[in-house]
């Protein structure tokens, strides 16, 4: 009675029991995931997506357990504006994958999902084939508050899916804010899905996006759209010709396809897999994966440093100082000195 | 004798005297700079470039003193590969400036200067006219170890030059590492000086550079080179057409000139000054300056956070953990947990 003085309270007893249970669970979840159990894969991802600090510890342990079983998949990132047909394209591409016996996981990074309640991949009606296929695992974007949080969860979910034996991981993003850079940083091949349009569509192209991609695919190249799609493809090739490629030794180019009529999809498949074998041969594939892990670690360090420093009071102080700097009343150096005054 | 027990030691006496002297100096240096004294301007910059911590304090005080006198100049950044003719171009452009009674300062951000001992602006023979003109102030790149350090010094040097009454500040960079982004972040107008060549010269273009520029100027458009320069200009315009402009409401374009034969320089002058009046009218000019000051503050905060955390021991630990993450022995999350274990 001395050791657990409040154990008679049923709520405290439940909490205590739960904690003990979780310590056992991690190893079990890991083993089940490695054996290919979908239910436990979902359970593992839920653990990763939890923000409770004791869950974070368990999640880290879980990942350490599965770490020897990761790294065997091909990771493909897909971005494109809403309406570019990402879901339809993934449905078509995923069909090709399962027909070749590739176990496929479909994930998403959607920084807006915390506002909209999960906009992309929520609508599974566009992926009716994949949604019901036993070799396909679909998981919508976690709806955490920050992009950094979503990024961590998706990166760790990729690892779990790999441990569960998925050969192809597709990561979709709508490209809000910095999300393309983040998805590029967790995938081997990065693809921009674009639309045909009035010829001016490239004007509104997002800053820096072209220097992240390994290929541009102009979707909906069917019927009356086909000619315009060829023109758009040409325009993209014009730009790509001048830019530094995202992957050393690989010349990114533009292609057309129609996900709806399933034309040009097989060609993109071949393209991606020749990219994978070329980069594996040159060593660029392994180098990128190592670099991505180290970059991710560095990002986590920066996030943690900021979280540690910017407690509520510091946030307020920073905001006040920022305003004075904005008005040129205080020099940035002086402002930073004031901010760190009592810290060191 | 009790108060200064070691004052009989001549070295300690000198240190003490020096400190007292410096406390007086700051206000004097500020006043002299504001009155336009070139010698004191140099002295102020030397103070800014010092890494001694008590100098940092004096430098901050100095900047606070001159802050009400800054902001009236036009700041132009110039980048280009070695051989693009930056010095010759600056000589020609500066000549135009002084002929219009613009007091001109020429600065540089050269991250390689700490290795090479100051490569750019060191060779003043290419700026013979400017080097001897009473209305021109030339200062080579500070040779500090880090790019962040060089950036801080140059930003603060810009402020001193403005307080000293310079109307036009030219900041040159060779574009090593992140230096273009840094110079873009401290200037109003950013210009890429390019060469004509075999037609393939755009291929090696640096990542992201085109989305930073307000204009591309193809230099050496003279004699037999002229035709090729027009072709290069056309190529640049092709790309610029598709990219998001660096400055809201301004369409960056490519131009040709010959700094050697002084042709096309006046046109660039007019271009820059119509940019300045347009952006001042739209409010974008003031907005950018405020944004730049706040961005700079944020960068300083990040630098300081890292300096505070990464003492020697942490650096070593980070390096070890990084290697384990690179080998996929440790997950990034787990590595970061270990790094912060004893910190919080």
UniProtKB/TrEMBL annotation, chains A, B:
PANTHER family: METHYLMALONIC ACIDURIA TYPE A PROTEIN, MITOCHONDRIAL (PTHR23408:SF3), METHYLMALONYL-COA MUTASE (PTHR23408). The keyword Hydrolase applies. It comes from Jeotgalibacillus salarius. Belongs to the SIMIBI class G3E GTPase family. ArgK/MeaB subfamily. GO terms for cellular component: cytoplasm. Its EC number is 3.6.5.-. Keywords: Hydrolase. The gene is meaB. GO terms for molecular function: GTP binding; GTPase activity. It comes from the Bacteria. This is Methylmalonyl Co-A mutase-associated GTPase MeaB. It is an enzyme of class 3 (hydrolase).
């Amino acid at each position: 009675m001395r050791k657990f003085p409040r154990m008679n309270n049923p709520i405290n007893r439940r909490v205590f029991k739960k904690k003990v249970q979780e310590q056992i669970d991690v190893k079990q979840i890991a083993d089940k995931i490695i054996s290919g159990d979908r239910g436990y894969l979902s359970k593992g991802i839920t653990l990763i997506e939890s923000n409770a600090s004791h869950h974070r510890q368990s999640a880290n342990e879980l990942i350490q357990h599965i770490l020897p079983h990761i790294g065997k998949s091909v990771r493909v990132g897909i971005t494109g504006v809403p309406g570019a047909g990402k879901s339809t394209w993934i449905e078509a591409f995923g069909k090709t994958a399962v027909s070749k016996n590739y176990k496929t996981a479909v994930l998403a990074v959607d920084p807006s999902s915390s506002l909209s309640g999960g906009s992309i991949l929520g609508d599974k009606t566009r992926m009716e084939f994949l949604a019901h296929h036993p070799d396909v695992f679909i998981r919508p974007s976690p709806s955490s508050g920050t992009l950094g949080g979503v990024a961590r969860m998706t990166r760790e979910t990729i690892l779990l899916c790999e441990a569960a034996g998925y050969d192809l991981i597709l990561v979709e993003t709508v490209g809000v804010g910095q999300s393309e850079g983040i998805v590029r940083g967790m995938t081997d091949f990065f693809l921009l899905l674009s639309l045909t349009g009035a010829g001016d569509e490239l004007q509104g192209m997002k800053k820096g996006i072209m220097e992240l991609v390994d290929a541009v695919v102009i979707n909906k190249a069917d019927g009356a759209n086909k000619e315009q799609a060829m023109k758009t493809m040409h325009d993209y090739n014009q730009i790509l010709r001048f830019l530094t490629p995202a992957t050393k030794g690989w010349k990114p180019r533009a292609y057309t396809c129609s996900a709806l009529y399933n034309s040009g999809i097989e060609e993109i498949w071949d393209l991606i897999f020749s990219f994978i074998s070329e980069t594996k041969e040159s060593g660029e594939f392994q180098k990128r994966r190592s670099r991505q892990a180290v970059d991710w670690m560095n990002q986590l360090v920066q996030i943690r440093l900021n979280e540690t420093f910017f407690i509520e009071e510091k946030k307020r102080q920073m905001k006040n100082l920022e305003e004075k700097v904005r008005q040129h009343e205080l020099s940035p150096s002086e402002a930073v000195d004031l901010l760190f005054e009592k810290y060191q």
